[in-house]
Amino acid sequence: MSRELAVVLLSGGMDSTVCASVASLNYSLAFLHVQYGQRTEKKELECFYKLCNYFKPEKILIARAHFLRDIGASSLTDVGIPLPKEESGIPSTYVPFRNGIFLSIAASWAEAIGGSKIFIGVNQIDFSGYPDCRETFIKAFNKAIEVGTRPETKIEIATPLINLSKREIVELGMKLGTPFELTWSCYGEEDLACGECSSCSLRLRAFVETGFKDPIPYRKR
Questions:
Q1: pLDDT of res. 125
Q2: pTM of the model
Q3: How far apart are CA 17 and CA 22, in angstroms?
Q4: What secondary structure, in 3-state letters, does the chain show?
Q5: Tens-place pLDDT, residues 158-203
């Protein structure tokens, strides 16, 4: 019996890769990667290709949304805005409505190829305060997909990590055999992860709490 097809939004980061591991348990995979002018765009694409070789999805799509760099207002896309080491409130690394745009692309592709699920690794526990990572946003977007697609189209957003801490995400990934060595989380560097940006800090702390060693190289642990 053939499996249903799931679109997985795969950035190449830790959370999206654990999400891909979860999706692979029950679905055939279609990997979607979005380039949007982020500082580590080249490194994330490299990780995406390595993860494709590992998971061997049935389909891949690389979408380009560089208008997000033109829109600006985020330290991930504007090198003139310094990356924060600590974040509070809605931080400068928030890219305005990024997940809404990514999910729109994913929904369009899923409808075109007959996908029934969209997996996205959003998290509202140990996260950076982004409004488009919250469960209320995902519920609203599920409704938008329902009313904005053909009547026979049935697509649902799956968020298996949304209520997990970073430590729990690492533990789940280790249980599922997620290839963390192929992932990248640093916001600013592409050779050695800085170890100091908020994303590196969350990741490193999670690995320390689990007792596992983070397998990627850092300039400063």
A1: 87
A2: 0.97
A3: 9
A4: CCCCEEEEECCCCHHHHHHHHHHHCCCEEEEEEEECCCCCHHHHHHHHHHHHHHHCCCEEEEEECCHHHHHCCCCCCCCCCCCCCCCCCCCCCCCCCHHHHHHHHHHHHHHHHCCCEEECCCCCCCCCCCHHHCHHHHHHHHHHHHHHCCCCCCCEEECCCCCCCHHHHHHHHHHHCCCHHHCCCCCCCCCCECCCCHHHHHHHHHHHHHCCCCCCCECCC
A5: 999 999 999 999 999 999 999 999 999 999 999 999 999 999 999 9
Residue 221 has pLDDT above 90, yes or no: no
Say if residues 61 and 35 touch (Cβ distance below 8 Å): no
Taken in order of first residue, the domains within the chain and their CATH numbers are: 5-166 (3.40.50.620)
Closest CA to 166 of 129, 125, 120: 125
